[in-house]
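Practice record 12: protein with NAP.
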Amino acid sequence: MINREWHLLSRPVGWPKPEDFALVETEVPAPGEGQILVRNEYLSVDPYMRGRMSAAKSYAAPYEVGEVMQGGAVGEVVASDAEGFAVGDHVLHFSGWREYAVIDARQGVKVDPEAAPLSTYLGVLGMTGLTAYAGLLRTASFKEGDAVFVSGAAGAVGSQVGQLAKLMGASRVVGSAGSDEKVKLLLDEYGFDAAFNYKEGPVSEQLRVAAPDGIDVYFDNVGGDHLQAAIGALNLNGRIAICGMISVYNATEPAPGPNNLARLIQTRGRMEGFLVSDHFDLQPEFVEKVGPWVASGALKYRETVVEGIENNLEAFLGVLRGDNVGKMIVKL
Ligand code: NAP
Ligand code: FER
């Protein structure tokens, strides 16, 4: 049986180019003791993968040049030599970027396709959903009555941050995104109080109009001008959760920092980065609280689904370009 998998051929400098990657044919291996063979059905593509394509040491090891890349995936067990895992089970695991994966069974988490669509275990009920929940509640110490600003607001994490804040009693929720269609979605479908297209004018000016009384929480997915504008709009005791800085992921030079950090003194503001992996303890609470909102439609989600392993790379590049609304998913 033939498997196709994406290899990293060279470390991208700046924007990744197709020549940096190759779709390679391999033999599907048989599972050894304690292992399962999974036919992947949904693959995740995420901004953090850009970081793993670089050699710099970070929270996750760099992808190896000449090797298959990794990422979140959900698939069906098609062969098992592991106790507790049967053919036909569905598992969430970390061997994406390929059609078939042999994994140690203890690295897979069984998921129920009856409880929720399989793709949601990669998005609204998965890693990006928990990121939104943990970052908003724990890192940003969100509380009822807060005015919240989130960037990347039409994306997987951002759209969930804005809606969670709304559902939990924010006084005002403001979002920014990169197209008028996305802005319309935030206002019409996700219930944001205000939203703007960051490509249409300076963020600081647009934020001043969108949040005339300032903000108590900024959930940063973008960095750069957005972060500077948010510091400028921060109210007394404001909190900034640094989730991501996608505006600099392809930068070849260090990006300029905010020049207004002294406002953190006046506001007694707090700015703190976080990683979702430090908050896995919240997963049960997250599913218990957010699952029913997703099921009832109180919390809406979109997925942008790209079909075929041959389009896995384009889907990833699409996330960096902003092609996606909600979670970008590759369906095999
Ligand atoms: P996403 O928001 O669904 O997709 C990325 C979006 O970023 C694109 O759709 C694009 O939307 C926007 N973007 C791209 N370049 C931009 C730029 N220069 N300025 C402003 N926006 C830009 O991705 P996601 O998975 O939900 O991730 C969102 C952020 O959270 C990323 O920064 C990611 O690294 C971070 N993250 C962090 C953790 C953690 O543990 N800390 C975990 C998961 C994700 P537009 O059309 O609006 O430009
Ligand atoms: C993780 C920690 C962080 C993880 C993803 C991230 C997939 C994402 C970080 C980022 O986008 O900056 O364990 O698992």
